[in-house]
Amino acid sequence: MEEPSSHADNTGTHSGNAPHATTGVAASEEVGDGDPPAIPSASSSNYLTEKSVGESRYGNKTTTIASHNDSERAHANRVAHTLSIPALATQLKTDVSTGLSTAEAERLLQEHGPNRLEASGGTTWWRILIRQVANSLTVVLALAMIVSWVTLDFIEGGVIAAVIILNIVVGFSQDYRAEQTIQSLLALAAPDCNVIRSRQFMTTKAENLVPGEIVQLTVGDIVPADLRLMTAVNFATDEAMLTGESKPCTKDAEMIFEDNDLPIGDRTNIAYSSTVVTRGRASGIVFATAMDTEIGKIAQLLRESGRTQDKTQNWPIRTAKSAWHGLKSGLGLIGTPLQVKLSYFALILFALAILLAIIVFSANSWEIDNETLIYAICVGVAVIPESLIAVLTITIATGSKAMARGNVVVRKMGSLEAIGAVTNICSDKTGTLTQGKMLARKALLPSQSLLTVDGEGSPFNPETGTVKLNDHIVDRNIMVCPGELQSFFHTVALCNLSTISAPTDSGLWSATGEPTEIALQILAMRVGQSKKDILADHPMTLLAEHGFDSAIKRMSVVYQDDRTGSICSYTKGATEVLLPLLSLGAEQQKDILARADSMAADGLRVLCLAHQHLDPGMTEKVSDRDFIEQNITFGGLVGLYDPPRLESAGAIRQCQAAGITVHMLTGDHLKTATTIAKEIGILGPQVPSSASSTAVMTALEFDKLSDRELDQMETLPFVLARCSPSSKLRMLHALHRRGRYCVMTGDGVNDAPSLKGADVGVAMGLNGSDVSKEAADMVLTDDNFASIVSAIREGRRLFDNIQKFLLHLLISNISQVILLLVGLAFQDRYGISVFPLSPIEILWANLITSSFLAIGLGLEGASADIMTRPPHSLKAGVFTKELIVDKFIYGSIMGCLCLVSYVIVVFRIGDGDLGIDCNENFNETCDLAYRARGTAYSVLTVLLSVMALEAKHLTHSLFNLNPGSGNSLVQNLRLITQNRFLFIAVCVGMVTPFPIIYIPVVNHVVFRHDHLDGADWGLVFGSLVLFVAMVEAWKASKRRRLRSRDRVAEDRVKESSEGSSFV
């Protein structure tokens, strides 16, 4: 074990008359990184012990406490390390055994405020408003508005001003709601901590902690506030962030110091907020929260230092930095990777808009009047996808909300963009693929006697089930005489940190702790040998606890008999890990290993038990783990059954259908893992290469291979047994070298590196440590593998919808560019170009019609084939080859149909005379020009509306959106109408031309077009039919190519299989 770092000038003594306190923690559900950041907390459910007899580190020792005046006592956050527990509890008006009452905690919360650090960041309403105002679209429209007013065209200027205000208001409301949704979801992931209130264990948000709370801590927790420790069992924290000390600081709850100004690194009776528990467990009293904590003081100093540094800089530099940050925020260059990528794309289009404006000026021989200038500006507007970022924000917000409903809390929004592209999932077994509710089914004693359990009911109810020894029922009387059975149950119960609670109002038994330890404690309780019973019959004191470590896969405790003074250690762990430590010969070890293999082949998780008696004089050596865990006596094997979750097999089948490979990375025995993997479908005839020699491996075999040897393997292991955190990391690196995108699950402290290194790290909300949750991108609130699959489904839906609304927006842009640029060739009697669309028509089509249709596409549900397609490539991103080709095909078709309709009205129906000065106002010569313009606008609006329906699927026909469902007309109509927002937007888009065309004044003065007759509406209808036919024809050709490609791939696989069979 590591020794604590040396401390100078830390004279201290031990306290007496300290009360017993409960240690451990209950389960938590989520963790997050909301803004402002809540102080992280203890929320791991790894351990929760009983109110513990023999576990208190307090004894009847003399105490020396330096006197303090009332002023010093009023500042508990400064002198807490100098106070005894009773003195501090009195000062904070709390009771260490019952905790605060709920009412008192609420009152103190109002008095002290939330337990979170003040943050200068975060998204506020004014930031969102600035983001709406300070963007390229608003700037361009404002320029057009100014030009209109300067040229005294108040109607057009007023309409553009209304459009600007409407765009800002709608954009602000949508963006604000989306941000509120995201922040509320991050609040779900805010850290929890476990406290005692009114004698009850309960879980509360860390930000609700107040001074006087009694908090429980264990390995992997992040301390939620500054605590004066009450109990500490082998407890140490990593305080590098505060002290710079690289070694964990060992804590001693019994120490009391005299120096008020003792350096914080020497205050070994204090656990500081935001430090990480590296070993052991403890409980303590909160004496400082939020900005009063040591980490809060540092945060305040940093903020003041930042302000001081800013003040020392020249004001031009400060102004430039602020302006640059504001510009980047306004342009959308601050956000998730996808948001930034799309913002850069929008800037490219903005540059294109400038180029198109130059083309407009050139077409008019640079004779720039006010209408030409406004038209050039509006042509630029037609190219800019003005609703792009707003629709993306809304889509991400709805995706996050949907994931939360599916028990997945998104901590880092960038993971939403990656989860849909994953190709491999590396999952834990216990509690994720299995139920995590273990049952002790079988045990083998050293004498080869067989212990079995029959008739269990609830996994948490010790009153059900019968324990038999060689078919004879075991009762309490057998436990009177010492022997192997008693040693077995002592090891099971004492080397255990779980807590079983009797029924309360619910009538159900409950338990907290690791599933393995809960099952073992229940087994002991069935024969009256719980930890509480044993310590009541045989009073003992806990001398040392060496917690379970995933690297060495074992745990030990050391107890001393209060009557005789004898010392005994109890150890449990993986069989192959404990065998070399046993005082047995090679043949006996081989026999034990064979029996463990036999139990594992039945799907049981096998643990080895051992114990050792020590001389009473060895109390000084019990802290030496190597000494305690050598030459120990074999105590038996116990087999635990953890049934697979009912939904695991179906979820794995969905992954395989979606082209996702599932790997099980577990600490279990090889045969146990293999049995469960076959049962849930990770291994089997339906999985290619699952029969290969490398499909199932132990971590020992895997770690012996070099990176080159791993890269030469045909497939990486589907099952990796006895897996350590370092093995997980190697698996992750091996997958990345193959160009794979990986989800990695984890729950332990040591899983943090692999969670951070994964493309999407997923932590367990129920049984995960705080450290793992902080490192993860997502947190499962139910620890269920099926929830990961739901998140992948939602990620794919999100990706699809982004492609859909991108396609629609870009088609609109391309079609308008074709119409507006080619339309400049049509001139009036004086040789001036007559615009095929008026500026207001362009703005209306882009800001009203297209925007709502794009939002509707962003809210689309998942398509029927979403989990039967292979993963998309993150390298290509949303701008796939298919999307790029489709947008040019559909945009060209739409633009050409609008142009052809305009030409037919002008030259076929009319005589080609476009009148005089028909760009600025209506006169008797403008009938034809206004009529042609109205026809082109109507065709554009109707085609944009129907294109939104066609964009529901990039390949499937609009008339058969779910090809595998039998092509029912009713069902297809249901699919078309199920997205009500989109359906209503389409319907409104289809009928919008009628009022705009026929309402007097609005048509001539505002939109500058005229009403249509039957022939014109015939052109609109004909364009609609032709457009749908050509889009459907293109989709049909895409489907044919896909079928042809699939047939070629199947033939290649068949040839490969036949070749392998021949060999």
Automatic annotation (TrEMBL):
Q: Which reaction does it catalyse?
A: Na(+)(in) + ATP + H2O = Na(+)(out) + ADP + phosphate + H(+); K(+)(in) + ATP + H2O = K(+)(out) + ADP + phosphate + H(+)
What's one GO-annotated cellular component?
plasma membrane
An example GO BP is: potassium ion transport
Q: Does the keyword Lyase apply?
A: no
Matching Pfam families: Cation_ATPase, Cation_ATPase_C, Cation_ATPase_N, E1-E2_ATPase, Hydrolase_3
Q: What is its EC number?
A: 7.2.2.3
- Molecular function terms, GO-annotated: ATP binding; ATP hydrolysis activity; manganese ion transmembrane transporter activity; metal ion binding; P-type sodium transporter activity
Protein name, please? P-type Na(+) transporter
